[in-house]
Amino acid sequence: MLSHLAVLQVVVPLLAAPTCLILERARAAWLFACLACLLSLGISIALFMQVEASGPISYALGGWEAPWGIEYRIDALSSFVLLLINLVAAAVIIGANSSLTAELPEPRHSPFYVLFLLCFAGLQGIVATGDAFNVFVFLEISSLATYALVALGRDRRALFAAYQYLIVGTIGATFYLIGIGFLYSLTGTLNMADMAQLLPGLEEQRLVAAAFAFVVIGIAMKLALFPLHGWLPDAYSQAPSMATAFLAASATKVALYLFIRMYFEVLGQDAVNALFPVGKLFLLLGAIAVILASLAAIRQNNVKRVFALSSVGQIGYLVIGVGLGNALGLQAALLHLFNHGLIKAALFIAVAAVVCRVGGSRLEDFRGLGRAMPWTMGGMVIGALSLIGVPLTAGFVSKWYLVLAAMESGLWPLVALVLIGSFIALFYVWRIVEVAYFQPRDGAAVSEAPLMLLLPLWAMALANLYFGIDTSLTVGGSEQAVNFLMGSRP
Amino acid sequence: MMQSATQLLLLALVLPLLAVPGILLARNQPNLREAISLLTGAALFIVNLCLFSLGEGGVVLVEILPRLAISLELQPLGLVFGLVASFLWPITTLYAIGYMRGHDEDNQARFYVFFAIAISAVMGLAYSGNLFTLFVFYEIVTFSTYPLVTHAGTEKALKGGRTYLSLLLGTSIVFFIPAMIGTWFFAGNLDFQPGGVFGEEVSPIALSVLLVLFAFGIGKAALMPFHRWLPAAMVAPTPVSALLHAVAVVKAGVFSVVTVVVYIFGIDTVAKLPITPFLVYLAGASILLASLVAMRQDNFKSRLAYSTVSQLGYITLGAFLASEAAVAGSLLHIVMHAFGKITLFFCAGALYVAHHKSQISEFDGMGRVMPITFIAFTLGALSIIGLPPLGGVWSKWFLMMGALDSGYMIMLAVLSISSLLNIVYLLEIPARAFLKPAPEGATLQEARSSSVLAMTITALMCIALFIYGSDIYEFIRSARLT
């Protein structure tokens, strides 16, 4: 049993999805989904500890040895990302029932759980597998499920947002597939570790460059990297609130994981940069994303859109960390990947709680909630402080590393940029806090959010505080991943 | 010995927080609620006295990243600041009782709760063992005082609060954080140690940039042009302005500047940096400009606010003059100005509560209506101007000595001119109150007795500090500053 953990991580939610379909009753489906997610969380913790103790785990699917068969590979990087996705998924699914009851008619509940589990399984598959084509399969599973999840939103505009996302997502996946096709024709293997060994010896570096361009653009679309981010604000603001909470905290993170895997391990950072200064391009795009998206967030009136645009900006930070190309920068990216996942989970669950009680997420809906929903807003303020990067929150730790990494590269303007980005975050976040705490509420009285939403919200909020104070897990985990990635190709 | 220092340091941090649940539980029984605040304040002062008698010790609370910890450490600079802040807290509480009740304010429990949190953070700041700890508590001070500034909840209060928060947090995010991370980058640690943390190999240019970042990043020191938050914060109830915006918050700022100069850079290093003259002149300009602006303010609290900006310039100036005498003068000025300015704010609040007067032009003849208030005001004002027999004379004396030591003759002129300006804009007020005829039908009517008691104590302290000023100076000089 223990030796099968790597594959069970994906199989558990994948099989739980059709079971939810059979359990037609919403409550039963929810309980079953909760069970599956908690089980999966347990597996991810076990995997994380196992990898930390004894190094990477390799699992040959169906007993077919790599590179012929499909290999599942859990190393320091993937176990770190798996842990994040599972934490967020468990928090979201626990609160999902209360939020859905308020947002969607009952018949749509069990489809939500089915799609949620499929999406969850797909995302985990991308992280767990060591096979480039298998990645594509899971990418499609998670993407198709995501389109449908977005389309479940109660507004008719959700359909348009889902359609928009579908087109961009499909183009992205196709680009990725073309890139993999090139790499396969060059190396004759689909196993990523195998590819990494074969690629440097090749003569057709021009083709490798083309393959890389396709792969990167494909992933950048899923990642919502500026200027390919157009789908994200619509999709995040139209999807059911809890779906947004999950997607914001995990989907873009997995895209970044895939990106790091391809860039650092398979193709090799130095080899790629010898062909084209990609690192500099990332720095540029990341910087533009941070500033433009943060400025756009200030002007939004819908809180979901504020946080969605903030996500685009935060992806900028992640890409900057990768683009810096040094060990500290990569560690900053991984830390922020984890911490930002926790931040956005807390913020979007708080928004879900507000939508659940007030019925909307426009700025004026937040009036006076500081008094009416003290626990919800308290959790949200913690998430917001972490987003700004106040010390003793998780957000501070990742910003610390990012600034340090920029200093190490001698890129002082970038240091200024990262900090100015934080400063702008203060503005768009504080607008919400001010409305909630200092403007009186008019109209009907509002009660505190249901306990089942407050629990995951506070779990995430406290996680933000915990990982801001005891950083041994996040810093240690990301350091191992960096050593693994940087060490694999000196 | 060390053991008890550890426990006392933690107690200083936790004691104000312990009052919070008490205040919340007793929120509907004003007498009990205020008794809790007062007793905690008195106990906190005793804890600080015990810390003073111990003199050394420290504790590491939690290590966040390798070599980046939250730790507390007793050192002479912090002890001076901690004693002043903890002495004035119960007195301000005493004053606030009279003020808040006389004014019938809403949300009084929330007021006392955030007050207690702010004081706890100030204690942490005073006893920080490294720059990171100082920064953390610095930010907690900002956040915990924000609800106090916006206490009234009106549009004007919110606007003031916005300026307050965005300037204080803005400077700390954009300047202070890079300065801190830069220090870490060049020195490899952030621990406070006499003589500074930087090695010989760090270039003076880099150090100059860092020093400028610190000077502007510590926005609470209100060095021009980042002083706007202080007048904006005057929308707060007067006890907040008195303790926080004359003592705790602003002094936290200048205390941080002095600490950074003494324990991060080292006095000798700062004295040699090419940027230092620029900062000295900037502080001098801040002193004079703020005094000139203060003269034009008719609103009493605004005038006091700009006067504070000017006086903070003295302390920053002393730090950047970078001689032992000047730094000791700075620290002494933290003490002297705290007692003087809090007296002035107490008077401002008393006038507002008892007679709803907040404009200086309305004060004609009020000296006969509120004689104790205006006598206290005169004493506080004389101390700030720096005339004997009041405490303020010492700090100005040593600052001037420091300016001479460091060879900035022109700063002598700046300090003298500023004293003259102080006379003009501060003594105008008692002159109006005592010399102009009283308003018709006015009878003797002071503010509530607890408020009057508070301002009497602080005014008398200004005199006591004249007698004991040299002892404080000796204490500071006996410490190892370089």
UniProtKB/TrEMBL annotation, chain A:
Transmembrane intervals: 6-23, 30-51, 77-100, 112-129, 135-153, 165-187, 207-228, 240-260, 280-299, 306-329, 341-360, 372-398, 410-430, 451-469
Membrane topology note: Multi-pass membrane protein
Residues annotated as domain NADH:quinone oxidoreductase/Mrp antiporter transmembrane: 131-424
Keyword Membrane: yes
Subcellular location: Cell membrane; Membrane
Keyword Membrane: yes
InterPro entries assigned: CPA3_Na-H_Antiporter_D, ND/Mrp_TM
Predominant location: membrane
A GO CC annotation given for this chain: plasma membrane
Pfam family, one: Proton_antipo_M
UniProt entry keywords in alphabetical sequence: Cell membrane, Membrane, Transmembrane, Transmembrane helix
Family to which the UniProt record says this protein belongs: Belongs to the CPA3 antiporters (TC 2.A.63) subunit D family.
Name of the protein in question: Multicomponent Na+:H+ antiporter subunit D
UniProtKB/TrEMBL annotation, chain B:
Membrane topology value: Multi-pass membrane protein
Alphabetical list of InterPro entries matching this protein: CPA3_Na-H_Antiporter_D, ND/Mrp_TM
Residue intervals of the NADH:quinone oxidoreductase/Mrp antiporter transmembrane domain: 128-421
Key word Transmembrane helix present: yes
Transmembrane segments: 42-65, 77-99, 111-138, 164-185, 205-223, 243-266, 278-295, 304-322, 334-354, 366-387, 407-427, 447-468
One Gene Ontology CC term in the entry: plasma membrane
Entry superkingdom: Bacteria
Keywords per UniProt: Cell membrane, Membrane, Transmembrane, Transmembrane helix
Major location category of this protein: membrane
Localization: Cell membrane; Membrane
Family in the record: Belongs to the CPA3 antiporters (TC 2.A.63) subunit D family.
Protein name per UniProt: Multicomponent Na+:H+ antiporter subunit D
